[in-house]
From TrEMBL:
Keyword Membrane attached: yes
UniProt protein name: Integral membrane protein 2
GO terms (BP aspect): negative regulation of amyloid precursor protein biosynthetic process
UniProt-annotated location(s): Membrane
Organism: Mugilogobius chulae
Transmembrane segments: 42-66
Domain of life: Eukaryota
Phylogenetic classification of the source organism: Eukaryota, Metazoa, Chordata, Craniata, Vertebrata
Membrane topology field: Single-pass type II membrane protein
UniProt keyword Cytoplasm, yes or no: no
Length: 245
């Protein structure tokens, strides 16, 4: 294709410059004086190809990063075993979420809970890198932990769950998980584009499940600085308790 365009361009040029010399563009060999213009023509074509490929790649990137593929909204009511006795008989606590899912990334927005302690947060599940990041909006701090695939449904199932939630009220139960901050992450680049974008400019820490921390079972819990984020990415609500040891 490039060759055809090149020949046509050359032929036109030849026709303009010396109409008598070139009768049939297909038969005419390249004129001896056109070595310089051939080079320039090739360069121009290369330049155009370069610009076009830039536009295509750029467009694809813009499309990928700036168009949310799907946006969902859902809420779950749940039985809270821990203080069921105190709760009003007909009142069930509720967790609301908005979820944006695209490209194997789920970003969940959790508003501040009503009538319950808990922090508003963004939760990002990167299914490619198998990482989860919590951005606590009260503390403006990021917490990163390996993605727990037995809690977080895969993208297609997550979408199905939200579709189900949109068609009526959903009653569920509460699961608590206990996470402990282990170290500060100075360089967030290795965490990938999406977590980097979420956690850019915030203090970022690595976490671990409390039951996997060596001898971490009952260490001075009262002295710790803890907060909770209630959310769901499965058919139950998870109350994530994060403690800065
Ligand atoms: C995932 O979460 C479940 C329930 O909280 C827990 O039992 C399990 O140990 C976790 N798995 C990993 C790999 O952390």
């Amino acid at each position: 294709m490039v060759k055809i365009a090149f020949n046509a361009a050359l032929a036109q040029k030849g026709l303009k410059e010396a109409p008598s010399a070139v009768k049939d563009p297909e038969l005419a060999g390249p004129p001896a004086h056109s070595d310089g213009s051939t080079g320039r023509c090739l360069l121009t074509l290369l330049g155009i190809a370069f610009i076009l490929s830039g536009l295509i790649v750029g467009g694809a990137c813009l499309y990928r990063y700036f168009t949310p593929k799907r946006l969902y909204h859902g809420s779950m009511q749940f039985h809270d075993g821990s203080n069921g006795a105190e709760a009003q008989p007909y009142y069930l606590p509720q967790v609301e979420e908005k979820m944006e899912i695209s490209d194997n990334i789920a970003v969940i927005s959790v508003p501040p809970p009503r009538f319950r302690p808990g922090d508003p947060a963004y939760i990002l599940h990167d299914f490619n890198r198998k990482l989860t990041a919590y951005l606590d909006l009260t503390l403006r701090t990021c917490f990163v932990i390996p993605l727990n695939t037995s809690v977080v449904l895969p993208p297609q199932d997550l979408m199905d769950l939200f579709s189900q939630l949109m068609s009526g009220s959903y009653r569920s139960y509460l699961v608590q998980e206990d996470l402990v901050v282990t170290e500060r992450i100075e360089d967030i680049k290795p965490l990938g584009f999406y977590i980097r974008r979420l956690c850019d400019g915030k203090e970022t820490y690595r976490m671990q499940r409390r039951d996997t921390v060596q001898g971490g079972g009952i260490v001075k819990r009262s002295a710790e600085d803890c907060f909770t984020i209630s959310h769901f990415e499965n058919k139950f609500v998870t109350e994530t308790r994060i403690c800065k040891a």
